[in-house]
Design a protein that fits this description.
alpha/beta; seven-stranded mixed beta sheet; globular; binds pyridoxal-5'-phosphate
């Protein structure tokens, strides 16, 4: 039987993710649209976005934060292209996005990194990392639902730099910024903002690298963070490298102000934890559902990946299609390179009641797609 209760907001995509509760386009401040991003107002709005991010991430004064082009990919590749090559490199990969940075390091930058891998669902041996090298990792592997448990495995004193692709992690986990030299993310994940822009966080040692090391490779203007051997500080005050979408910026400000209004970082983390717990309960109650991430300590509370006993990708597709057609869950089939399963976003912009309402619908779709 078809369940009666429907999630009020069926948005469970892992990016772009659900808009914050209460969002609508007419809630956005549009005064700056049609104006130059270098106008007084434009600079003020960009600076406000930066200030709010700093406050909500609880970022210490030691770290800079700026808005850059190209979403998370742009921000992470900018960091790779400008800083890598000064010393050895280690890349960690346990799912598709981490694997993408390995490809960049090997095939594009032609570095010879040490690659430490694990299969979908597992975390590699973090203790095996050589911190005399620069280390690249994905804080939360969005396509496998496996994350690093914390930053304990990163030594306080390290020779190499730590580079964290933290796009589906920031605003969902507390981050020990002293352990992070470079972090990147995009507004489209936990904040429910828009893609297009990346955010780059630089610790003091990353700035030192930028100012002391000039890679022998050509750098497009979009990647240039220094001029005359000095950091371009303007980027971290809202003087963007090129023209940003001020509509995306206003949308991010809306999300950040929402986050602040509900209690900031702790409240965001709590919402994500509650959503993941609600989904965990649904999984525990059904023998045919499982968690792809085996170890609860490194299981994501944002991109939660589920296994469905014996279901092949055709059945998964059919389930996702049925639920989409019913308007109860959008975009929940697992990522194209990941094992067939469901991936249900549990970030802060999702409401727990909506996650809870999903359970009976999963039962229904499971029965509907059972081979007769
Ligand atoms: C871990 C991770 N890295 C990178 C990306 C790419 O992000 P973007 O499309 O914002 O550049 C994603 C997108 O889902 C991701 O989850």
């Amino acid at each position: 039987m078809k369940p009666n209760d429907r999630p009020a907001r069926p948005y469970f995509s892992s990016g772009p993710c659900a808009k914050p509760p209460g969002w609508s386009p007419d809630q956005l401040d549009t005064r700056v649209l049609g104006r130059s991003h270098r106008s007084g107002l434009g600079k003020q709005r960009l600076a406000l976005a930066i200030e709010l991010m700093r406050e909500l991430l609880e970022l210490p004064d030691t770290h800079r934060i700026g808005i850059v082009p190209g979403s998370d990919t742009g921000a992470f590749e900018m960091a790779m292209w400008t800083m890598l090559g000064a010393r050895g490199v280690t890349t960690l990969a346990w799912e598709s996005f981490g694997e993408g940075w390995v490809t960049d390091a090997v095939k594009q930058l032609k570095l010879d990194p040490t690659v430490i891998r694990a299969d979908y669902g597992a975390l590699p041996d973090l203790a095996a990392v050589d911190w005399s090298t620069d280390v690249l990792f994905t804080w939360n592997g969005t396509t496998s639902g496996v994350r690093v448990p914390d930053a304990e495995w990163i030594p306080a004193t390290r020779e190499g730099l730590s580079f964290a692709d933290a796009t589906s992690a920031v605003f969902a986990y507390p981050i020990d910024w002293a352990k992070i030299d470079v972090a990147t993310f995009s507004w489209q994940k936990v904040l429910g903002g828009e893609g297009g822009h990346g955010v780059l966080v630089l610790g003091p040692r990353a700035v030192e690298r930028l100012e002391s090391y000039t890679p022998a490779r050509p750098l497009p203007k979009l990647f240039r963070l220094t001029s005359g051997g000095k950091l371009n500080e303007g980027v971290f005050k809202g003087e963007t490298i090129n023209t940003p979408s001020m509509l995306a910026v206003e949308d991010a400000i809306f999300a950040l102000e929402w986050a602040k209004s509900i209690g900031g970082l702790d409240a965001l983390v709590a919402r994500s934890n509650a959503n993941a717990a609600a989904l965990g309960k649904i999984v525990d109650e059904r023998p045919w559902l499982g968690q792809l991430a085996a170890d609860p300590a490194s299981r994501s509370t944002t991109s939660v990946c589920l296994t469905l006993a014996g279901a092949d990708s055709a059945r998964i597709k059919a389930i996702a299609k049925l639920l989409e057609a019913e308007g109860v869950a959008y975009d929940i089939a697992s990522y194209r390179d990941a094992p067939p399963g469901l991936r249900i976003w549990c970030g802060a912009t999702v409401d727990s009641a909506d996650v809870k309402a999903l359970g009976p619908w999963l039962d229904w779709a499971w029965e509907m797609t059972r081979a007769s």
